[in-house]
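The records we work with from here on pair a chain with its fold. Taken together, the tokens spell out the fold as the letters spell out the chain. To see the layout at work, look at the sequence and tokens printed below.
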Amino acid sequence: MKAAFWYGLRDIRVEDIAEPSVGKNDVKIKVSYCGICGSDLHEYLAGPIFVPVEEPHPISKDKAPIIMGHEFSGEVVEVGESVTSVKVGERVCVEPILSCGKCASCLKGHYNVCEQLGFVGLSGGFGGFAEYSVVPASMVHKIPDHMTWEQAALVEPTAVAVHAVRQSGLKIGDSVAVFGTGPIGLLVIQAAKAAGASQIIAVEVSPERRKIAKKIGAHMVVNPLEVDVVQIIKEHTNGLGVDVAFEVAGIESTINAAIESTRSEGNVVNISIWERPAAIPMNNFILTERKMTSIIAYRNIFPQVIQLIANGQIQASELVTKKINLQHIVSQGFEALTQSKNQIKILVNPSS
């Protein structure tokens, strides 16, 4: 089968390898679609971040080169002898978190902050940028018959957004600012809307992404290159600032604008994976009793996210701007996302 491997900075190669075999607790999936994630792009442009290079990952036992891809859906084609949760022929998506199951976080069900946290497709394993993947049955979630493969491939990034909104403490009627409207930012807008936000202000430099933000639920969009974002946000929140600001850009100026745009005792939610350190004046928290909540991935949420998408409460497939085959994953995928803000979510079909 064909699979796309991460070898290093701007070095992703599509190679032929043997199909993976199934262990007694595993499920083999013929991949229908796998999305290129912002985390994948970070690895391509600035990695390694999650990819193990010097030593194998303690759970996957793999190190670079690794098969990429962690936002994927597909059909079950084989199950291990001990698997009873899914059957051959069923349609599924994958929750790709690698966790030890033994540390304090795992034992209380917070496996997304496991001491040995990793992700299939970033930390090893059989990622979704391949014709077939094998994952533990515990990672597999069945999807409704009417859900499309494209929608199912977007459950994983949507779960990040829904988890962020849940962790933010957002209440019905609260005001929200979303700084950065790439795929996760756009999904945060939809998740905040579903959670009852009364006012959602999107901050984005790209005109194409501002247009999509408005279409999917932002009440107001602001270009930070043209206006004083903090001033505009305060003008539209009775001079107070928003109740919750979500930072989804990973830029120092953006996180500081998010902080200043949040009311006293409000919450700044950091979702970004940072490629470099950022300087943050801590008095902007201390003198206002603002909070910062940081989130990584998601936990115990996939079934609810599947329903949010299947029911149409979150229009995840609105984000898909292109579908490509595996052979063109670099030129039409990673490079396209690097060169143009017109692209939001690119889905890869490994079998086409």
About this structure: The first helix runs from residue 38 to 46.
